[in-house]
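SEVERITY: medium
COMPONENT: batch folding queue
REPORTER: lab tech (J.R.)

DESCRIPTION
The queue accepted two submissions in a row. Attaching both inputs and their returned structure tokens so the on-call engineer can compare them side by side.

ATTACHMENT 1
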Amino acid sequence: MNSGARAQKEDGHMHEMGITSGILASAVEAAQAEGATHINSVTVSIGDLTEIVEDALQFAWEALTPDTMAEGGVLIVVHVPPKSRCVQCGEEFEHDKWNMLCPKCDSFLVEPITGHELRIDSLDVD
């Protein structure tokens, strides 16, 4: 891989490093507030529309957790599929990121319900 392609690939996943850094910082803060000494796992929900790449998130976790209370802990990712509500008829439906047409009335006027999540759901600590 030439240096330009490598830089593009690295830049393309740099936001996962920042996101993971934020997840780790929040988890450590919460664990310390509870008097924990080790984070065994962090479970996060990530909406499929966020376009966060799980492999890059996991790579960042492995890179950031050594020498922290989360060293050896795992990052568990729960994927949340996109779901919207039709403004015209009220139908709620799951869809992919390209086809948000209401299956009941064929309207394009929809409001998102799920799919944009990025949240820490739980910590397992000692």
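ATTACHMENT 2
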Amino acid sequence: MLATTLRIRIAVALALFLTALPVRAQEPAALKKLNAQAVDFYRQAKYGEAVRVGQDAVKLAEKTFGTSHREVATALSNLAEYRRADGNYAEAEKLLKQALVIDQKLLGSDHPDVGVDLNNLALLYDSLGRHADAELIYDRVLAIDQKALGPNHPDVATDLNNLAEALRAQGKLTQAAPLYRRALAIWEKSPAQYARSIAIALSNLGALTATLGQNAEAEKLLGRALEIWRKTVRPDHPSLVATLRQLGSAQVALHEYPKAETTLNQVLAIDEKGHDKNDKQLGRDLSKLGLVLFLEQKYTAAEPHLKRALALDEAVYGKEHVTVAASLTNLAEVYRALGKYSTAEPLYRRALLIDEKILGPDHPDVANDLNNLGALYFSEGRQADAEPVLKRALAIKVAALDPDDPQLLPIMDNYAIALRALGRDAEAESIEKRAKDIRAKSTTP
């Protein structure tokens, strides 16, 4: 049987930052109570509730102290973070800049509370994808806190984690890793007090090591994070679910498919219980679980998950979208594995048409679609139909890739097999020799 190409959904890496939400001792009892309530809602990821209570805290602070007071700056800064978490970035930026102006005027530019405001402004920029801007601000915050608090203060660990996240988002992985580890070492000195912070650092470091291909190390780190999350947050908390998703991806990369199936079933169970379901994320999770079941050769079990993922993707993205093409391909792969060739073929063809329209006829993904269709024809004994399709797939890949790129090998192998089946041995031998040379070069140190 010729090899085909699954359209794998890549998991979004964790991006867990830490914001600073100060509550000062001198604040009146009513304000302290409101701030504590808002922080509690925030930690439960009930951001709408946190915004409501945070707005009440701002009003009370302004009524009690006037508009230019540190307690007002604190309330504004905290409300800004709740707004950011709730997705209202414009309002969050406005509130943060108001707090920053007040604190800089009252405290000076190097005060730790100014660092709090700057940290949360950088966090907002990270949410907007402005990671280079965020990096510069996090650097400034780290300098402020190390000078004011010392190099081993827990707030410095927060700065280190956040700077590392901004670096990781820019692909600066080797710079980010030691910052995560230093943050983790600081928090682990007080594990009971900083359990959630430790879980965040472990989750982020696990995601980074997975990106580096160190999946065994990632699995250990994410497993440790998951143990902490289970003890400290509700069972459907976003941070716990994000860690589960990343752990499942690491287990897939390690070919630990039974473990991955268990992990991703937990994710799906949480998805299904969500009061306001995210169909886009649910589709991704269904696809990933379906892929794992496919890799375990549990084709019948994979089919309903992938069918449902396709339906959700069509509803979210429309009928013609590259994500829909990926879902069509994955479902077609199941039908091909089950021997349901007539059911698989229209799915493969539809995926091909979508990708040709959106990506262009010479895109590498189109070559993958052609390879899959050619492999299907070969499985049906339609070698004459398979040959031109595979020939076009190979031509696209050759034009798009380096001549010695190992990504050429699956299509070269398939095309050679098809040529052999048609009795065109000389042509097949030429392709096989080229493939052999590529393999030899790819294994040379």
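NOTES FROM REPORTER
The CA atoms of residues 413 and 432 lie 7 Å apart.
No errors were logged for either attachment.
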